[in-house]
Amino acid sequence: MPPGITTLAADAPELSAANTGFMLICSALVMLMTPGLAFFYGGMVRVKSTLNMLMMSFISLGIVTVLWVLYGFSLAFGTDVGSVIGWSSDYVGLSGIGVTELWDGYAIPVYVFAVFQLMFAILTPALISGALADRVKFTSWALFITLWVTVVYFPVAHWVWGAGGWLFELGVIDFAGGTAVHINAGAAALGVILVIGKRIGFKKDPMRPHSLPLVMLGAALLWFGWFGFNAGSWLGNDDGVGAVMFVNTQVATGAAVLGWLAYEKIRHGSFTTLGAASGAVAGLVAITPAGGAVSPLGAIAIGVIAGVLCAMAVGLKYKFGYDDSLDVVGVHLVGGVLGSLLIGFFATGGVQSDAKGLFYGGGLDQLGKQAVGVFAVLAYSLVVSAVLAFILDRTIGMRVSEDEEISGIDQVEHAETAYDFSGAGGGASTRTAPPAPGTPAAPTNKKVDA
Fold it and tell me: How confident is the model at residue 446 (pLDDT cuts 50, 70, 90)?
């Protein structure tokens, strides 16, 4: 994603209504990804955790929006301070920004850039929630989001995309969030689950998805919204780069679905809907950093590699004993690492920049830069996220009680259940014939168990 750059006054662009409208649409598409993620995760958990999973995504829409306005945008995209953080007083509260003031070097208003980036900031902590299903207090989760975006996401976004950020200046390519979003969230998820521990019954009880149709719906909404996430990250439509990214997003995702399903058929003997949905997300994750640097053929390769290796990676939690409930580590961390590193092999030097990968005569230079970005973000997010989780766990507590986890976190934390199969508001209504004369009436106090 191109950060703001300084241009000469004579070369400064004028506001483009077309690019502004395009970016507002892309912002709305990225916003849709958070509810899409909620459905994707919500269908993957057991029925007793459905609402909690939905709420763990939805609360990010509220918390991060307010923090972004108050100080997040300033920390991420304000004037560089030491190559590690930004700060601009005009961005605090978004109070010093003119209505038609343009983002430096681009034909869109600062407000439009700010709201587009806000949607990224909202989605990233929501991704973490899938690793923590079934066992985290909602209040603790809300506080974790507040702390995490402040000390992890906002600084990392500046490193990667902010003018003067040290990874940006190094030349690390991250078109739309392989490091800042997916590696960041995946490493954070791993850090937190190492602190809070496993679900009760992990590797013993069946913990199958309760609604695969919801999973497929969520995956479809994510795929749809991802076009705004990726193509919009060029911040305009004037030179065709965004169009290449749009095409590569579709191509890599389709290839990843095929790769995941092929591995699944060979390894387990079946083509599953959960595998198709997970493969799609793996492909979307992997192409996110790379799609502006590779050709469609490169996108196919990245998609297939991500589909196969992410499918393999989701089983690592059983081998190593960490309870990543919904495979955030296996899909987002592994997919983000793959997509970021494969730029060092498949970058053509003919799309977003002239940087070339190993297969196009560029040697190992770009691969080295990508590796620095990958492991810097991974290490920082992993360590800081674990520290935050440890502090919260030792103070207010991160987990619900054992009894509450067994009975169901929805009822405990939200006083609701996802499905009501009894009473006037639930279950399917069946029309029957009236009883014959003289037939005793059925008892009215029969209990129906969900």
Answer: very low
User: What pTM did the predictor assign?
Assistant: 0.91
CA distance 20 to 91: 20
Residues facing 80 on adjacent strands? 86
The full length of the chain comes to 450
Tell me which residue of 180, 184, 179, 168 sits closest to 80, measured CA to CA. Answer: 168
pLDDT band at 431 (very low <50, low <70, confident <90, very high): very low
Beta bridge partners of 136: 399
Query: What string of DSSP letters covers 99-166?
Result: TTPBPTTSSSBHHHHHHHHHHHHHHHHHHHGGGGTTSB-HHHHHHHHHHHIIIIIHHHHHHHHSTT-H
Q: What is the DSSP letter of 181?
A: I
Give the H or E element holding residue 332. Answer: none
Whether the Cβ atoms of residue 140 and residue 199 lie closer than 8 Å to each other: no
Burial (CB count <10 Å: 0-12, 13-18, 19+), residue 90: middle
- Long-range Cβ contacts of 197-205 (<8 Å, 24+ apart): 197/323, 197/399, 198/321, 198/322, 198/323, 199/133, 199/134, 199/135, 199/323, 199/325, 199/405, 200/135, 200/402, 200/405, 200/406, 202/323, 203/318
- Cα distances (angstroms) measured from residue 348 to each of 140, 283, 319, 345, 354: 45, 19, 37, 9, 8
Give the integer Cα–Cα distance in Å for 12 and 76. Answer: 23
Work out the average pLDDT over 136-162. Answer: 98
Residue whose pair of structure tokens reads 């005009």 in the numeric block = 90
| Distance from C-alpha of 233 to C-alpha of 17, rounded to nearest angstrom | 17
CA–CA separation, 50 and 32 (whole Å): 19
The structure tokens listed for 271 are: 């083509």
| DSSP assignments along 185-238, one per residue | HHHHHHHHHHHH-PPTTTTTS----S-HHHHHHHHHHHHHHHHHHHHGGGS-SS
pLDDT of residue 246 exceeding 50, the answer is yes
Residue 19 has which token pair?
């690019």
Cα 325–337–248 angle (5° rounding)?
A: 105
Q: Within 13 Å of residue 384, how many CA atoms lie on the same side as its CB?
A: 20
- For 404, the 3-state DSSP assignment is helix
Contact 132, 53 (CB under 8 A): no
| Residue 420, pLDDT score | 85
Give exposure, 56-80, as e/b (b: 16+ Cβ within 10 Å). Answer: bbbbbbebbbebbbebbbbbbbbbb
